[in-house]
Amino acid sequence: MVSFWLQLAIVLACIVIGARISGVGIGIAGGFGLACLTFLFHLKPSSPPINVLLIIAALVTIVSTLQAAGGLDYLVSIAERLLRRNPNRITIIGPLVAYLFTILAGTAYVSLSLYPVIAEVALEAKVRPERPISAALIAAKFGITSSPMSAATAAMLAILAPSGVSITQILLVCIPSGIIATLAASFVVYKRGLELADDPEFQRRIASGEIESAVRKEKSEVSRSAKISVWLFSIAILLVVIFGSFSSLLPTWQVGEKIVRLSVPHTIEMLMLGTSLLIVLACRVKSSKIATASTFRAGMVGFMAIFGVAWMTDTFFIQHKSLFIETFADVVKAYPWLFAVALFMMAAMLFSQGAAVVALMPLGLSLDIPAPYLVAMFAAVNGTFFFPATGTTVGAMSFDRTGTTKIGKYVLNHSFMLPGLAATVTAIAMGFVLSYFVF
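Structure tokens predicted for C4-dicarboxylate transporter (439 residues):
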């Protein structure tokens, strides 16, 4: 038993150290922890999550290709027009737009580009920017777990597909619950804080000249290649949903006496890579632009995080699988929401939805938690907002020139905590309700 606690201490220490380093640090810390478990305690390493990693690599490639072709900027321009049409309802419209466009793109990059627009529209409408910005950041996180193109959803599908879960079932639970969660986040912040006219920090910045009228960027002409890339990308999304929902459409082969069908994860990988090539050819995208795209760098950071930490945690959990089942199976069956708490905290420590999915969802299956319940609790991996240390969180705060979006005196009382908790609880509750009808 002493050995178990020492191993657990190493796993947790590596997660904490990796989180402090952030970025690729999570992955390399996981690799170090795996080495310790293997060489010091002679644990047999599990197989790395190859399917999950390959899907993520393919998704990162197509999103980066879309960005290189100008497609992401085109999506942002559409979103900006939607936001400026309803300035007085920015606290409702802003988060919904962030949610929708994150679903379409499969990445929070789009929402990161929207935060300055949301901040300026709110300021022009004399709405406290903290309200729409905080809700929009949370909405974007739920957009990731509602998107068929995100790494987190890809990981979820790869893990649950053997249990008979399809991409359509995941989306039928996550999209409606995500919309309701987004509205819940907007609702709890709708009248939050002082109005700008009564906010002392805002008035101080006005008096000191720190806040001046924002100069709108001139609308640039959208290139034909950007539009083509978005259309091709949209077709790829549609094909993923179709093939993921109707596996009978996939090719089969006779292997011995068995009929083997092309797996959904492999189908997604082929579609993403194939569509990436079509975008490159149709839009004349230079391959060097794909590799230097911000989404490619961010995606590869996520890839490494999942690679290292998931391999380490999987090795640890498999070694002690019987102990975990014996200790927690009855409790989790009686109170399945406790597993959602574990998912939430793991995501908060790893700052990654995908890494949290790969680290804990296999354990959920081992504990005999029904797959529909795991889908219902998928939203819990959006706990990455808990500690205000991610790039998107810091970026969102920096875009608010009024200073209303901020980290509180006690760190955890930051602008995103209230809408984040409200959205998470709402999404999980709705997830359980919807999973009853979907499965």
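The mean pLDDT is 87.
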